[in-house]
Automatic annotation (TrEMBL):
GO CC terms of this entry: outer membrane-bounded periplasmic space
Record carries keyword Phosphoprotein: no
Region Disordered: start-end pairs: 171-209
Pfam families: Transpeptidase
GO molecular function: penicillin binding; peptidoglycan glycosyltransferase activity
Penicillin-binding protein transpeptidase domain ranges (all copies): 222-372
Keyword terms, alphabetized: Glycosyltransferase, Membrane, Transferase, Transmembrane, Transmembrane helix
Keyword match Membrane: yes
Protein name per the record: Penicillin-binding protein transpeptidase domain-containing protein
Record-annotated membrane-spanning stretches: 20-39
GO BP, sorted A to Z: peptidoglycan biosynthetic process
Length: 514
């Protein structure tokens, strides 16, 4: 302002000495004020030191770059997730915090990383697709509302990057009210704070040590398929199956599934036409023929099938599963191929996404990028991917996975006669699909995986911990509804993308001989 007055007085004649004097007075007053400010600043900052920048909370945005999900301005960053503008974003927000805590790019230890999340002023570009998430949440709640004792969780993952596009569950992301008494609410091995009501902040979609997931059933047969193909078997590998199979796995002779003096004897269920007969990987996987996969696993070794599951993206979080999966126990875990271990929708989506990406496994990734307070991208943040399976083996496994969802092998009519529970998925998605569904024999858990070349959706339905002693069964109509919901989410996610098909596997992995 003072400079403008002086310039004006020198270029505009006729204002006289009064204007000049006024301008000089303004300069002196401003100079005096500046001197006070400088003096105060110098008195507050030691010589040679610069003023510390004001702490600023980091912000998490959705994949569109403009939708703010959360500002991490609470002492516990997870607390910020309780204030998201759309409640069901809370599970995704919470997963971002969990992911952040493990990333060396944000500090040397967990405490430093969380401090930087609260005060570092990062701009976090989340992977969540708000449109797809809204549709997923609407569908899970429509089938099983938040008050239902069964938990319906769903995750969508992008093959080749691991980007997590949806994390939906039929619960409110809210801390449940404290129970009247801890002793009355706690069951064996169940945390006293766990709620069986509509409000829950457990990582129901992604899992942790306290929430390891549930049994997936038949989708785990895919790991036997992949292990067998990787060892040299072909998709047309034939076995004359019987309704009951006398395995080599030892169990207690008093067990209801024991025979032959203490051997595990699993039996086929489901479509009566597939309880015995000559089967290949195609129709055995399409109809979840138990005795076929137990026999193949015996040939491979259960430990190799377990290792394949881990290679593709399955994590064992439960203490018992961890013990059973390690040597020497793994070799005798015969029921593993039937999907008896605990898993989550996110793990299932990740494992099948590895196959859809030609054997490249990518860790689940909830962020597309992170910029620091100065706007510079943070190095070391991005997809972490590794080739864990030969591309041709992954492609052959995907081809087997077309049968359960009503799709067709590239080698013709290989899926066998009859219908399958998820036979309408191909028509709903409107694109090539691969995957599997599983309803456990006690009808306590259901899983479904729908994989396309560019997107994989997985969903699980299970009774909430502590409800009815974990014995509440899934009612008629719920499996069909869950399969439809997963297929519709997959359709919506693929709709904006160009149509693509899976790459065909080589014939030598499909058909033995010429």
């Amino acid at each position: 302002m003072a400079g403008e007055s002086i310039i004006e007085s020198t270029h505009r004649p006729g204002l006289g000495g009064r204007r000049v004097a006024l301008a000089v007075m303004v300069v002196l007053v401003c100079a005096a004020a500046v001197g006070v400010v400088v003096w105060r600043s110098r008195s507050a900052t030691p010589p040679g030191a610069s003023a510390a920048p004001r702490p600023r909370a980091s912000e998490l945005y959705a994949a569109d770059g403009t939708t703010l999900i959360a500002r991490f301005d609470t002492d516990d960053p997870r607390g910020s997730c309780l204030r998201v503008p759309v409640n069901d974003w809370g599970y995704f927000c919470d997963y971002v915090v969990t992911w952040w805590r493990s990333q060396a790019a944000f500090g040397a230890d967990e405490a430093q990383r969380l401090d930087r999340l609260r005060h570092g002023g990062y701009r976090i570009g989340g992977s969540l697709d708000p449109r797809l998430q809204a549709g997923a949440k609407q569908r899970v709640d429509a089938l099983l509302p938040v008050t239902d004792p069964k938990v319906f969780s769903l995750a969508t993952v992008e093959p080749g990057t691991g980007l997590v596009r949806t994390m939906a569950v039929n619960r409110n992301f809210r801390r449940p009210p404290p129970p009247p008494s801890a002793s009355a609410s706690a069951g064996p091995g169940q945390p006293v704070w766990r709620s069986t009501g509509p409000d829950l902040v457990d990582p129901l979609v992604s899992g942790d040590a306290d929430t390891p997931g549930e049994a997936a059933g038949a989708p785990f047969m895919m790991f036997t398929v992949a292990a067998a193909l990787d060892s040299g078997l072909t998709l047309d590998h034939a076995i004359d199956t019987e309704r009951v199979y006398v395995s080599k796995y030892r169990i207690e002779p008093q067990s209801p599934v024991a025979c032959g003096g203490g051997y595990w004897c699993p039996a086929n269920t489901g479509d009566p036409a597939y309880r015995s007969g000559r089967r290949t990987m195609w129709d055995a996987f399409g109809h979840a023929v138990v005795t076929y996969f137990v026999a193949v696993q015996e040939r491979m070794g259960a430990d190799k099938v377990i290792a394949m599951a881990q290679r593709l993206g399955i994590t064992f979080r439960g203490e018992l599963d961890q013990q059973l999966s390690k040597p020497p126990n793994g070799a005798s875990w015969g029921a593993f191929t039937l999907g008896v271990s605990s898993t989550t929708a996110l793990d299932l989506a990740t494992a099948y996404a590895t196959l859809a990406a030609d054997g490249v496994r990518c860790d689940p990734l909830p962020v597309a990028g992170v910029a620091d307070a100065g706007g510079k991208p943070v190095p070391g943040v991005g997809p972490r991917c590794e080739s864990v399976l030969r591309p041709e083996v992954a492609r052959a496994a995907i081809d087997a996975g077309r049968c359960p969802l009503g799709d067709r092998s590239v080698f013709g009519d290989r899926c066998g006669a009859g219908s399958v529970p998820a036979g309408g998925v191909r028509g709903t998605v409107g694109r090539p699909v691969s995957g599997q569904t599983g309803l456990t024999e006690n009808r306590r858990t259901l899983s479904v995986v729908v994989a396309g070349p560019q997107l994989v959706t997985a969903a699980m339905v299970a009774t909430a911990p502590g409800v009815g002693g974990g014995r509440v069964q899934i009612a008629a109509g719920v499996p069909e509804g869950a399969i439809t919901a997963a297929a519709e989410v997959e359709h919506d996610g693929l709709a904006p993308l160009p149509a693509r098909d899976f790459t065909a596997p080589p014939r030598e992995l499909a058909v033995a001989g010429p």
